[in-house]
Specification:
By secondary structure, this protein is mainly α. The protein contains 3 helices and no strands.
C-alpha cells in the first residue's frame, strides 16, 4: 500500500514539474515581441514628457520673472540671487528635457 501511494506522489510530482515547464515555455515564447512592444509604447510617451517639461519651464520662468520684478520694485537687495535661482531652475528643466530627447532618440 505504501509503495502505491509513494508511486502516485512521484507521478503527481513529475507531472506537476512537467506542467510547470510547459507553462513557462508557452509564456516565454512571445517575450521578445512583448519587450519590443513595451519599448515602443514607453518611447512614444517621451515626446509628450519633453513637451510637458518645456511647458513647465516656461511657466516657472514667467513666475520667476514676476517674483524678481516684485523684489526689484520693492527695493530688496537680494534681487540678483533670486533671479539667478529662478533662471537656474528654468535652465535645468530645459537641459533635462534636451538630454532626455537626445538620450532616448525622441
Amino acid at each position: 500500500m505504501k509503495k502505491v501511494i509513494e508511486r502516485k506522489r512521484v507521478i503527481c510530482g513529475t507531472l506537476s514539474i512537467l506542467l510547470l515547464f510547459l507553462t513557462v515555455s508557452v509564456l516565454a515564447q512571445d517575450g521578445n515581441a512583448g519587450i519590443n512592444e513595451a519599448n515602443t509604447k514607453v518611447r512614444s510617451y517621451f515626446a509628450a514628457g519633453v513637451n510637458l517639461m518645456y511647458a513647465v519651464g516656461a511657466i516657472v520662468g514667467l513666475i520667476g520673472a514676476v517674483k524678481v520684478y516684485q523684489k526689484w520694485n520693492s527695493g530688496d537687495h537680494d534681487t540678483g540671487k533670486v533671479a539667478a535661482a529662478w533662471f537656474g531652475s528654468c535652465v535645468f528643466l530645459v537641459i533635462v528635457a534636451t538630454v532626455i530627447r537626445s538620450f532616448f532618440g525622441v
